[in-house]
Structure formats: structure tokens, C-alpha cells
């Protein structure tokens, strides 16, 4: 299996982010995790505008400011400088997580070390060494109506990230609703991975071979087609 | 993202018989009279209403009760300067009452909005309002466990609002409004001044728009206290 | 016992309120119950200024406005119109009761139907008839650092209001810290009524005779001396 | 009622060894650098610090930790652009860590300020951060019981403040400030602009003065992020 070395058969992170962005409705309230998930904001389809929430107390923030124009009291959860859109609001941390925990977000998008077929997510810690840090991930996975994961399909060492059961410490139990990978779009439904789209350069069997749990088919499987980015 | 609706009738659309409805206000301050009257016009039956008080005079919540549309009240203080509507229905056994201490009512609504299914409070311990509730001791002191409160709809009166649903309130008319906005599946707000997006300073927003579903402008809202003093009636 | 008919041996409500006001420190945060307790605000000693809290979301409100100048969105918990002092603040009901329940008030002053010697308070309901209404009283008695009661010493029918055990439904258990009556000032300490001051026209035995539980003496008992009001 | 103090040293007076101290801020926004440095000057030992992060660079909270004054951190994210101070102490076993999910941390602090000794949250259910905690089911869903968090002191940075302690904040520097003000026995606030009583619109007050004990003006406060980028050091 040398799929990782064939760039035509896998999406770049930008392309994964683009694909996830297509599933965000106009006017949706969205929280993007630190790092890779933040890329989703760049690819909102024309005519749609999501409202972005950041744990540290802003609704409706926008793109980064020009270099040199940063206000370090106007940052996102990744501590990056942002700007405001008209109709923004500030609030304290308890109100911010009331939005999260209270089910007011439409979508949360996170990265993953592993996702299990029942929707368990492991994305905060890979072992017992170093300094553990959790941030808001454990809250986000239990609050949003839809919890999307964006991720490579395989780890850098070629291990499946979609598994029967997570071996890394859990972030949340049965919380992920949909996974966007470099090779496929997979729903969690009824405790199973249900394949919705797959990279057209890849057979079902090849995809199953790099997936750590059974991929079910329940309805049509589309081609995962994304633009060059 | 435009949450504006053009009429009061459209604002209260979808509130059917059997619904639970939070109604903002403390006494007359913050009572969304126009939204309540639009709700009466729909004549839904068997409503559960969650509101600090139970109405006064012959308008607003009192008129809703008087019309026989409310099966159950959850409130802290069902008395007022003119409590006839509620008192008559209650004494006739035509309306059920769940009496909740005011701070517990506020916290239960906030909990509903914040995804906290239950919490402990010292309030009401040892009183009949804690009957049947779980008790737990923390640091040697007894507390009562209370559950969140949610509702299908919230009717709230705010001062300024923008198309995204960001809100400010007028003085003590704030009271339960920001909490009820959080705790309802569909939050409906009448604002005295509709302003464009960006028309409210982000620092001054009291209710962020994420908690609001529909905004309707009522440019010169009536004030419950003044209506009652004028002996006004819903008709 | 005809003490109720001897005005020289009992304080008026205004005088009870005046006496309670003397125990409120400068800068104290104070909540006054609806009705009789509201009178306490009139008698703050010169040079002291309490900050008044009302459950419906105002700190630092002041006297009523002139008739005709009422703003019915600027009311206290008794639904009476008030004014603001410089440095006032508005907040919602959950924040308001966070102030109450979280122990941020220095003093809450309430009326009473009965107070028992262990500090139980009954002040919200006298029977099973009519429409019950509780408001914020049950919260206030468990939040403030000091819970004062202002009350007549006897009911209108001559029954003691200070009792061994309340017969009316309770507002709170072991919550009252001090009682100001028409005849005495009584602390609750160690589950007992401890007499601090008594009306000078009244003997200890006469006071005990109109009190429904034993009055203890623990330290000096002062004269309850108040101005004509 | 005048909560103003004249110096940073006076502001942090009374914070002794063994104290628990909440420190506001999220990353550099809201970090009360001047108050923290004044606290370091006092050299109290064995502090328990409650703060979302665990400092960055060689200033502020990182400097407090670097000076060996912190025995225990309660935080959600002890990582940063330059986490040397905490990382070294932690890996050397010289500082204890209680890791708390960010929303749970915020809610525990609010609960401490609101007199709620415990509450239930879905957060962390089934994870190692719920180990040893009570679990209860509500409406068929499992929740973790969490306790309130209080502290002896809170150090908070605000934007405007008046002598009564009413506060506003600057943008996202608000974060944990309003919560920590509620939850500490003694709340100490540095404000960039001290205004007279009445200088803050009552509608715009974010933290009412009842939650604040001491206010000190720091007219041109340093910003943690900018200090770290300039490689500044506490000395």
C-alpha cells in the first residue's frame, strides 16, 4: 500500500477543508478548532456566510488583519489576531461555553488523531509524556449539533485514523457525526462508518484496506471531487 | 443571516397548542405585550407558560390566561396589583401552578440555555418547595438539586436589535430576557429599535444573536404598568 | 398582657427600620425585602451610604422619582419606581441571583411571620388557601452574610412571632442572624435567641412573656432607644 | 465606597504563601501583567494558581512560575508559544497540574461566584478527565458532576473602572475576567482608565462593582503577547 505517495489519490489539507466548507449552510454558527480546521473559513461557497464563534468570546469575527495591524486583545482561540464583521459581539467565557454546551452551535470542526466507528474522538493527547493540554475540545464535541472531523485518512506512519476503537485517550464518546479525510467522506450512523464519498482514483477495496474498521454503504457513494487549490 | 420578520403574526407563527412558552418581564418591565397579544390572536390551547409573574389587569399575560389558553404556569410570584385572571383560574382548578423561587427559576432557565441538566442550590432546602427533590451535602452544607428549564418558544422584549439578533435592553427591563433567549428552541424578540448590522457596539451587546431566531420591530411598544393604570383590555 | 395598646413601650415600624439601619456599615451591599423592610433605606445614618441591590437587576438605585416622573422600566422588586445613583449597574436575573446566592450581599432585610430560635424563617405563606407566591425570599435568606428580620414582636392577634419552632411553612432553615422587633433586638446564636437590646419601658420578664421561646442573655443588654419618627 | 488603591503593591497586599489566586486572561489578552509582577515582588510561596493558560515567555504568569512561587496550577491549556517556565517545572515534578476542560473551568468558576456548589455537564464524560467523578443520567444521557471553584484572590485586567468597582473590558480580553471577579474572596483589578462614579453607562457595565474589592489604575498596561514578541523578561 503506497497510497500516501500518490498525490493524485489524496486530497491536500486545503482540499479537505474546501470539501467540509461545502456542507456549512448559509447563516450557520460554526466553531473551527485550532490549526487545520481554521482553513475551512477560507472556502465558504459564494453566497453563503457562516458566523464564526471562538471560545474566547467573539461571535462573527473575520479574516486576519494586515501584518502590523494586529490588536492582541482581538484574537481567536488559537491566539491569532482576527478582525470583526458588522454585527459582532463580545462575551465572557461562561457565556461562550453556554453557546457551546447549550447546543447553540450548528457545526464544530475539529482535527483528530483517531475516530472510532461509534463516533468516539481522540484528538488531545497521544501518550503519557509531556505536558497535557485540553483546551475547549471536550466541550465542543458535546455541544454542537454536528461535529465534523477533518483529517488525513492515515497517520504519517501509515496507520489508519478511522478505527474500531480508539487507542489514544478520548476527547469525547459517540460525538463525531461526519469525517472528511484525504480520501473519503464518512458519516457515523448507528455506530457504523457509512461511506458517502470516496476519492475517484481509489477503489472501495483500496479505501477499506486503509480504514481500520468496516466501511458500510447505505445509499449512493459519490465521487469526492474538489478543485485544485 | 437575516432574522427579521415583518409582522407580529409572522413572529409568533408556529406556536401551536401544547407548546411551552417562556415570557420575559418582571412585573411590567420587559413584558412583551405586543407579542403576547399576537399569540392570543392565534388561540393556541394548553400552553405551559414560564414567566416570573402571572400577569396583571386585563392585558398581556393576564389576557392570555383569561382567554383560557394556559394550562400550566411555572413562576415565582403569581401576584400583582390586579391578579384577577390568574387567581380566578387557579382557584377554579383550571390552571396548574409550579411555584419556583425566583433565583432558582432564573438559574434553571440559564442552565437550560447553557447545557447544564442539573445543579445544586441552597435555596428552598428544608421548605415545601424542595419536597421530592434530591438533596446532597457539599462541604457539610445541604443543597437541593434542581433541573434545567427549556421551552419550545421564548417571547422577549428588547430595546435595540439588529438583523443578526444581537440585543440590548432598557434598564431593569433586562431581567429574564437574556436567559430566556438562551433556553428556548425558537426565540422571538420584539425590539423597539431595529438597527443595521454593526449598529450595536460589540462591547454593548447583552444577548448575542446566536440565541435569537426572529426579530420583529415594535417601534412604540406599550408598557404593561401603564396599560394597567389606564385599565386597558385586550380585545 | 396589653402591651400592644401601650405605644410608649413599643417601636413603630419606622423606628424598627431606623434601628436596623444603624447596623448597616458604610458601603455595605444591602437587599431590602418588599414592603416594611424598604423603610430601612430612609434611615441611613449621616456619613454612611449603603449600596442597594434589587433582585430584578439593579445595583445602586436611589429614592423614588417625583410623581409623574416614573420610568416603569426602572423599578425595584416591589414594582415601585426608583432612580439611579452615580455608579449604578444593570444586569440580568441570573447575575442578580449570583450576587444573592454567591454570598456577595452583606445584608438582606426581610419581614417575618415567625422566626424560630435556631433561625428558621417563615415569611411567605400562612396557610394552604389562596395563591402561593414566593418571589426571591428563599434565595435571599441563603445568600447574604447577615440576614436581618424586621417585625412586630407579636402578631395582630397577640401571638408571639419569635417561637421555638415555626408552625407556618418555612422560607429557610437556620438562616436568620438578627431580629429587630417592636420591643427588642435579638441575635440568633448557637440555636438560641440571645437578647441584645430591649425596650427600656419593659422588664426582661415582660419581654420573655411575649416571646415564644427562651430569651438568653450573653453579655450586656442595651436599651433599645430610638428617636421620635 | 471607594475601592481605589494607589499602588500595585497595595493592590496585592495580603496575598500570602499558600493562597489560591485566580489570574484572568486567555493567552495574552486580559493577562494582568502589572498585578502579577507586583505579586512576584511579594514572593509568596506555594500558591495555587487558577488560569486558563500557564504563561508564556519570561513575563507575567510564566515569571511567577519561573520564580518557584506556584505549587499547583489549575488550567485548561498549559501550552503557549513559549511554555518553558511551566514545562520545566512540570517535567521536574515541581508543580502539580489539575487539567480542566475550558468550558468546565469557566463554569466551575462561575458556579463558585454564584453559590452553586456542583453542577452536571456532558463535557469529559467517558474520558480520563472524568476519572473519579460522580456520573448521573438525565433524560437518558450521562453527565459528569463538577464542583465549584473559588479562590482567595483574583487578579483581573479590565479596561475602564470606577471607584465602586464597576468594570468594562477591552474586546476579547474580557474572557475569564467577569467570572473570576465573582469567585474570589478578594478581587483585585487593574484598569487602564479610572473614571468617576457615573462614568460608565449602567447599561454597559460588564462586571458590577459588588464583585470587586480593589481597583488600581495602570494607565498604559503592557500586553503579554507584545512583551513575549519583544523577548521581555521580568527582573
Automatic annotation (TrEMBL), chains A, C:
Gene3D superfamilies: Glutaconate Coenzyme A-transferase (3.40.1080.10). It comes from the Bacteria. Keywords: Transferase. InterPro entries: 3-oxoacid_CoA-transf_B, CoA_trans_fam_I, NagB/RpiA_transferase-like. Belongs to the 3-oxoacid CoA-transferase subunit B family. This is 3-oxoacid CoA-transferase subunit B.
Automatic annotation (TrEMBL), chains B, D:
Pfam families: CoA_trans (PF01144). NCBIfam families: pcaI_scoA_fam. This is 3-oxoacid CoA-transferase subunit A. SMART domains: CoA_trans. Keywords: Transferase. It comes from Ancylobacter oerskovii. InterPro entries: 3-oxoacid_CoA-transf_A (IPR012792), CoA_trans_fam_I (IPR004165), NagB/RpiA_transferase-like (IPR037171). PANTHER family: ACETATE COA-TRANSFERASE SUBUNIT ALPHA, KETOACID-COENZYME A TRANSFERASE. Gene3D superfamilies: Glutaconate Coenzyme A-transferase.
Amino acid at each position: 500500500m503506497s497510497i500516501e505517495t500518490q498525490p493524485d489519490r489524496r486530497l491536500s489539507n486545503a482540499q479537505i477543508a474546501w470539501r467540509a466548507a461545502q456542507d456549512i449552510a448559509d447563516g450557520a454558527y460554526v466553531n473551527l478548532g485550532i490549526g487545520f480546521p481554521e482553513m475551512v473559513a477560507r472556502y465558504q461557497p459564494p453566497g453563503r456566510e457562516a458566523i464564526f464563534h471562538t471560545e474566547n468570546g467573539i461571535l462573527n469575527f473575520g479574516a486576519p488583519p494586515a501584518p502590523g495591524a494586529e490588536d492582541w486583545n482581538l484574537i481567536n482561540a488559537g491566539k491569532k489576531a482576527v478582525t470583526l464583521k458588522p454585527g459582532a459581539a463580545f462575551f465572557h467565557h461562561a457565556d461562550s461555553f453556554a453557546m457551546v454546551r447549550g447546543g447553540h452551535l450548528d457545526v464544530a470542526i475539529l482535527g483528530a488523531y483517531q475516530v472510532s466507528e461509534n463516533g468516539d474522538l481522540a484528538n488531545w493527547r497521544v501518550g503519557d509524556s509531556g505536558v497535557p493540554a485540553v483546551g475547549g475540545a471536550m466541550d465542543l464535541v458535546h455541544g454542537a449539533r454536528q461535529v465534523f472531523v477533518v483529517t488525513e485518512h492515515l497517520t504519517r506512519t501509515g496507520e489508519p485514523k478511522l478505527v474500531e476503537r480508539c487507542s489514544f485517550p478520548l476527547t469525547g464518546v459517540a460525538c463525531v457525526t461526519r469525517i472528511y479525510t484525504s480520501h473519503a467522506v464518512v458519516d457515523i450512523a448507528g455506530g457504523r462508518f457509512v461511506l458517502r464519498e470516496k476519492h475517484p482514483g481509489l477503489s472501495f477495496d483500496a479505501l477499506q484496506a486503509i480504514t481500520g474498521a468496516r466501511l458500510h454503504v447505505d445509499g449512493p457513494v459519490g465521487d469526492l471531487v474538489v478543485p485544485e487549490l | 443571516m437575516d432574522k427579521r420578520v415583518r409582522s407580529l403574526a409572522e413572529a409568533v407563527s408556529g406556536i401551536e397548542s401544547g407548546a411551552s412558552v417562556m415570557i420575559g418581564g418582571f412585573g411590567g418591565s420587559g413584558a412583551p405585550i405586543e407579542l403576547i397579544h399576537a399569540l392570543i390572536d392565534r388561540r393556541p390551547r394548553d400552553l405551559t407558560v414560564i414567566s416570573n409573574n402571572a400577569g396583571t389587569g386585563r392585558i398581556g399575560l393576564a389576557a392570555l390566561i383569561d382567554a383560557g389558553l394556559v394550562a400550566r404556569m411555572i413562576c415565582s410570584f403569581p401576584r400583582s396589583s390586579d391578579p384577577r385572571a390568574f387567581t380566578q383560574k387557579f382557584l377554579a382548578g383550571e390552571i396548574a401552578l409550579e411555584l419556583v423561587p425566583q433565583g432558582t427559576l432564573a438559574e434553571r432557565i440559564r442552565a437550560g440555555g447553557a447545557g447544564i441538566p442539573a445543579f445544586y442550590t441552597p435555596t428552598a432546602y428544608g421548605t415545601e418547595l424542595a419536597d421530592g427533590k434530591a438533596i446532597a451535602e457539599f462541604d457539610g452544607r445541604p443543597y437541593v438539586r434542581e433541573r434545567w428549564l427549556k421551552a419550545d418558544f421564548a417571547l422577549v422584549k428588547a430595546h435595540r436589535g439588529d438583523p443578526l439578533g444581537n440585543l440590548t435592553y432598557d434598564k431593569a427591563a433586562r431581567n429574564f430576557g437574556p436567559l430566556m433567549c438562551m433556553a428556548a428552541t425558537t426565540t422571538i424578540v420584539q425590539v423597539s429599535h431595529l438597527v443595521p448590522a454593526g449598529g450595536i457596539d460589540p462591547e454593548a451587546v447583552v444577548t448575542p444573536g446566536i440565541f435569537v431566531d426572529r426579530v420583529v420591530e415594535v417601534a412604540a411598544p406599550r408598557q404593561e404598568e401603564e396599560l394597567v393604570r389606564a385599565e386597558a383590555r385586550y380585545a
